[in-house]
Automatic annotation (TrEMBL), chains A, B:
Quaternary structure and interacting proteins, as annotated: Homodimer.
Keyword Lyase: yes
Entry keywords, A to Z: Catecholamine biosynthesis, Decarboxylase, Lyase, Pyridoxal phosphate
GO biological process: amino acid metabolic process; carboxylic acid metabolic process; catecholamine biosynthetic process; serotonin biosynthetic process
Gene3D superfamilies found in the cross-reference section: Aspartate Aminotransferase, domain 1 (3.90.1150.10), dopa decarboxylase, N-terminal domain (1.20.1340.10), Type I PLP-dependent aspartate aminotransferase-like (Major domain) (3.40.640.10)
Family, similarity comment: Belongs to the group II decarboxylase family.
Leading EC class: lyase
EC number: 4.1.1.28
Keyword Lyase: yes
A GO term from the CC aspect: cytoplasm
Protein name: Aromatic-L-amino-acid decarboxylase
Cofactor: pyridoxal 5'-phosphate
Matching SUPFAM superfamilies: PLP-dependent transferases
Amino acid sequence: MNDEEFEAAGQQMLKYVIDYHKNIRERRVMPDVKPGFMRKLLPDHAPHTPEKWDLLFKDIERVIMPGVTHWRHPHFYAYYALSTSYPAILADILSDTITCSGFSWASCPSCTELEVIVMDWLVKVMDLPEAFLSTSPGHGGGVIQGTASEATLVAVLSARTKFINRAKEKSPSMENGVALTKLIAYTSRQSHSSVERAYKIALVKYRILDTDEKQALRGDTLKKAIDEDRAKGLTPFFVCATLGTTSSCAFDNCKEIGIVCEQEDIWMHIDAAYAGSSFICPEYRPLLDGVEHADSFNFNPHKWLQVAFDCSAMWMKNSNDIIQSFKLEPVYLKHDNEDIMPDYRHWQIPFGRRFRSLKLWFVLRLFGIKKLQNIIRQDIKLAHKFEEYIRNDPRFEIFGEVIMALVCFRLKGSNEINEKLIKSINEDGRIHMVPSRVDDTFFLRLSICTTRTQNHDIDFAWKVVSEVADNVLKTTN
Amino acid sequence: MNDEEFEAAGQQMLKYVIDYHKNIRERRVMPDVKPGFMRKLLPDHAPHTPEKWDLLFKDIERVIMPGVTHWRHPHFYAYYALSTSYPAILADILSDTITCSGFSWASCPSCTELEVIVMDWLVKVMDLPEAFLSTSPGHGGGVIQGTASEATLVAVLSARTKFINRAKEKSPSMENGVALTKLIAYTSRQSHSSVERAYKIALVKYRILDTDEKQALRGDTLKKAIDEDRAKGLTPFFVCATLGTTSSCAFDNCKEIGIVCEQEDIWMHIDAAYAGSSFICPEYRPLLDGVEHADSFNFNPHKWLQVAFDCSAMWMKNSNDIIQSFKLEPVYLKHDNEDIMPDYRHWQIPFGRRFRSLKLWFVLRLFGIKKLQNIIRQDIKLAHKFEEYIRNDPRFEIFGEVIMALVCFRLKGSNEINEKLIKSINEDGRIHMVPSRVDDTFFLRLSICTTRTQNHDIDFAWKVVSEVADNVLKTTN
């Protein structure tokens, strides 16, 4: 593909992107293909000679789109939002063009420096503790991870190293594995599955703690668990608190948890993957109170801040903890600037890294904070609009509280009827949602996921839910 | 940014991409900025209101480019190649537009299915064992990881789970940490630092084994270590063999290692991050012999196969091993198709994932295998051309063997003089290389990194090396 062909194909692709968004309402939000559908549409060998662009371009509609779950569709209400935006797409073109692997400052200074700067910008926008600034007197700083699950894992591994080293200071002959058997981590029953998974990868003991009636982990629950475990001779070392759980968007009490963690000298990590973006609005920032006690904090700009996946923003109070866990230095990577600017490969699981700060930079500048705040406010307003519909219909009830852009609701009555409802809604196909469960209660989740979702879409979503509920109730009674 | 603004900005960006490549020779391959340079060029706060595209676009040249190490520059000979290409850029525009998070089949069926298909294509192109095909009777299959370091870690964690479970079958009350103290893994002194790092993350014991005179790990060395460790009561469980080491592009003897691993019932992982792409050429495929003994195999199409970073191709003989390590199932992720198509979140460290198979698909179709083979052959030919220059100059010597597109060489004499040489070459700035060291020998690495590097560039590189060597030798004597 030469320059001219690329330019022509690129222009065609730009138009495709615009049309995709413009006409997305004509598509079925959730595809109705069966597993294995694509094999019938493609040859079973790669081509030996180049194919024409036109053929490939046609295959986007013929092969790919029939099996796409349209996360950009205004009627997509599943999981949580995943962002993309024109500025983010433009930034990724530049990132793909430069294609450095920014594992060290020297491997591409701009890749490291822009990341340091935009992560500092976010500290100020979100009023995060100053200890998270790269310019703070300590060793704090921010880094872009791929996903919140990686951020959690990085935090767990850092804390694990710190506590194992501490145990070995006391008993130098102690084996790592034996030191490990003493460590215990905590999280709530409502935290994301990737937290438990991080504990499994770290191979540490862990306890899944109960929450209060608002699905929030409380300080006294944590304190009780810690006391019990210390009595057993264990060393509590890590807590992952969640702000905005995946199931029902509940908020752990980070103020209480943070105080316990400080008193008990335990690493506190806050996972605010989804809700974190809202903290750019002053009125939601109090939800983050307690972050001043955290050793690490993470949220995903790729969820609600218009940055295309993957961009997970993580800060640490002391980057030495993570560097100590990971640093290994071969000759071919030595350079002279390590003390002034971070070598980010020591801050993450993978070795190489893309130039991801570009998309954060493009988005922050081309949207501006005010517009990003407005998007979040508007989405939450839409959620409350849907909440109204639910509250005004005596067949339904709200589950939990609508704080962000997620409405959890259910038909009053059995779980079975609600299982039937969600199945029927997704079979109907006009909107797409996923269900969840807290303890014994099964419910539906309506999550506002796109900036194209508007008032009339919420009216429509309610119409669909209400109609399908009519049918479900009719056929059940 | 509305549709029209996006189209205009996108067109400007496409032209920028073309011009960047066209005029890249006018840029200094390695920037001459000092750490912290960018802070002076940018405000210390994110803007409150949207900025104009034109301003941001100008900042690419004003702020970003002065600090870019140009991996695309024909005079960039450092590390190993990182690919990008027009087809890959186009595919990423589409991927950013769809922005699904393909953690399950249902979250975007096309994202999973295209990955299964193109990974099967590569099995056939590279003549990999049939057990790696998704259609094989076992539980084999391929998955796209972000980096080779993640692939190694996934392999180590899978093997660790398998062996801990085995130990606990015998002694059900044994603690994970205690089982861990028995496990020992191996790799050679020449493997990438990320292998040792994966062992540290897994917290397993490991031994770094010596290599033969060609920097290759041999079967008897491994066997001896295993015997010694078994005699100590340890359980050898994992070997990472490398095909194409980072230091000097050496090849471990996978045939010998594989036989030992089979006899000893140990997990064999092959890391061919860089050299793996060459196995699409029948004449280089014999270097991969022994892969039939491997439990997992990995190479990076983003290194040498024209796919933009990140795209690391990994295959496993039995995906159940990895699924067992990671699987945790919340209600909101349940769907009905799990047995027919993989839920790739169980195959990797992160939870979410981008639609990365698109760029592999675009590249394979728009280049075709023949052209990709030609690129590899041409790069290796250029390496041999540079090798000729070195061999014909009595001041220099080749280190190791030129097998792929990497030439390791040095001035005959002390390490100090070679340290001076590489420092002077990089200060000179006309070309960029990094050095390495094997045992006590310090040497320079010339790695062909871009498809734009041509015969006359090699002549030029030699001219620079030769001139700088003249000066270094003059001032030293």
